[in-house]
Design goal:
heterodimer, A: mainly alpha, 9 helices, 0% strand, B: alpha+beta, Sulfite Oxidase, Chain A, domain 2, 8-stranded mixed sheet, 19% helix, globular
């Protein structure tokens, strides 16, 4: 049963990619196809990032602990869409003009942010296997907190990309901020709780 | 280069389908326009007797009507034209929203007829013109220009319009006038994007007087043989082909002669990203933009951007001695 559910979720996560591939192959992208590809994959990376970050808060609020089984898959799909996004930028948008790409990463703050968000995800994807989780032990959790920084960078990447900060970039930034704020509040509350327990015990 | 094949029936004999479907509205508008014409002297803003507001409701106010009698390819480029669908479906016109397809989707509500343009400031003949009275006395020309957007995409567009210089001549700017300021319509009820404070409304733009009088600078009223659609800035917009697209202010209601460099909307919004001149320049890259290359809509790979968008031979002399890195 859980296995079948996992396969279902996996296939669901692939739908945006399949749909984009269909649109690409049938010539149904927008008037600026490269921009369409870039924007669509970027937005899906952000959506999966939000979903990944939402797992823990939802678990804590609802007690629906089985959600944790899907966190790795959601995280890896975030990385997957970010990879496609990055590849389109490198291979089509910039057409492998490395001098331009390096200038972009160094000089354009919104690209610096996007690049950082992406690079920070690489070690997380690499250490997502059972073997690495075991080997790293307690350090694994610490390492995987990098997703918070990656999330902040991704939100800023989108905010700084647009000419005026309105609409969807603002909503994504607000969503990510909310999910991170939840953790901060939770941390403060539980540490207070621990302290009071100490005193009373 | 063939623009399009002529249909067997001349354009002038075809009743536009849209117009036919809206014939009752048309009659109503025509009635209203006749009354407006009668009231014309009341609107004129100067003491001068103005030949301006004549019989209203002509061809230029309404979008998507066939235009005739224009000089074909008065200025052209040897490059493939972008399609009508591309030109009318991929627009930056924040008065209708910030997405590229918003203008096409939401600009249908904008009524461009009747349309009056105020010409005032430091000139001898200020007046409020009905658009037809402003444009009809001047020979229409087709100008096939490259358009380079600050967002690093570009198109080739067959505009139809008149040289701005002809309009300026008629207004007789005084010797004090050194700049021209342009203003877009402010009408939030029909321009839904104006409900959001993404820019200070109304949109304003400006040119130095010599730039405004340059023969390449036009007021466009049409493209591809028809009057402009709302998403392209109907009924009248500026086109300055050697500058980034946002200088081409749309749906103009006011042209004002001034003696100081006027405020412009994008500079007001973000002075780090935009400058007053905004000449296409592959070597000047304010923090957000890499302007060295561009993507021509309809092609896949980026191409090099050319100084002054390829119009350097005609316009570079206007900037002789200026530091274009500073005055971007």
């Amino acid at each position: 049963m859980p296995k079948a559910a996992k396969v279902c979720v996996f296939l669901l996560c692939l739908i945006p990619f399949a749909w984009l591939a269909t649109r690409t192959l049938t010539g149904r992208l927008g008037i600026n196809p490269v921009e369409d590809l870039e924007l669509t994959t970027g937005i899906w990376a952000l959506r999966f990032l939000v979903l990944t970050l939402a797992v823990t808060p939802v678990r804590r609020l609802t007690g629906w602990n089985r959600l944790i089984q899907y966190r790795r898959m959601l995280g890896l799909f975030t990385f997957f869409y970010a990879c496609v996004h990055f590849a389109i930028y490198i291979g089509i948008d910039q057409f492998f003009a490395w001098d331009f790409i390096i200038k972009d990463v160094v000089k354009r703050p919104f690209i610096t942010m996007g690049f950082t968000a992406f690079v920070l995800m690489i070690p997380l994807a690499l250490t997502s296997t059972k073997g690495w989780i075991r080997r790293l032990g307690r350090k694994w959790q610490l390492l995987h907190r990098l997703i918070y920084i990656s999330g902040v960078c991704a939100a800023i990447h989108y905010l700084w990309k647009v000419k005026v900060m309105i609409g969807s970039p603002v909503y994504y930034a607000a969503g990510i901020a909310l999910l991170l704020a939840f953790r901060a509040v939770w941390l403060v509350r539980t540490s207070k709780l621990l302290k009071t327990q100490h005193v009373t015990v | 280069m063939l623009l399009k094949k002529n249909p067997d029936v001349p354009f002038s004999e075809i009743t536009d389908e849209r117009l036919y479907l809206r014939r009752r509205e048309f009659m109503r508008l025509a009635g209203g326009a006749a009354m407006a014409a009668a009231a014309a002297p009341l609107i004129a803003c100067s003491d001068e007797p103005v030949a301006a507001l004549g019989p209203a409701e002509g061809m230029f106010g309404a979008p998507n009507l066939p235009l005739t009698g224009y000089k074909e390819k008065a200025v052209t480029v040897d490059e493939k034209l972008n399609t009508f669908e591309e030109i009318t479906g991929y627009n930056n016109f924040y008065e209708f929203g910030t997405e590229k397809d918003d203008p096409k989707r939401y600009s249908g509500t904008l009524k461009t007829s009747p349309w009056t343009i105020k010409i005032d400031g430091l000139c001898n003949k200020p007046a409020d013109y009905h658009i037809d009275d402003l444009i009809k006395p001047i020979q229409l020309e087709e100008r096939i220009y490259r358009l380079r957007c600050v967002e690093a995409w570009s198109m080739v567009i067959p505009w139809i319009g008149v040289p701005l210089s002809k309009v300026i001549e008629r207004a007789e700017p005084t010797s004090k006038a050194t700049f021209v300021q342009f203003t877009t319509l402010l009408r939030p009820t029909q321009m839904p994007g104006q409900a959001d404070a993404v820019l200070e409304w109304p949109y304003v733009e400006g040119l130095r007087l010599d730039e405004a009088k340059h023969p390449l600078t036009i007021l466009a009223v049409g493209l591809y043989g028809k009057t402009l659609l709302q998403q392209n800035g109907a009924p009248i917009r500026l086109v300055v082909p050697w500058k980034y697209g946002f200088k081409g202010i749309k749906s103009i209601v006011r042209i004002r002669f001034v003696d100081k460099q006027p405020q412009t909307s994008w500079v007001l919004q973000n002075p780090d990203w935009y400058g007053f001149y905004s000449n296409v320049n592959p070597d000047v890259n304010p923090v957000r933009w890499n302007q060295a290359r561009e993507r021509r809509i309809g092609t896949l790979l980026p191409r090099a951007t050319v100084m002054f968008n390829g119009y350097g031979d005609q316009v570079a002399s206007m900037y002789a001695g200026m530091d274009l890195r500073r005055n971007y």
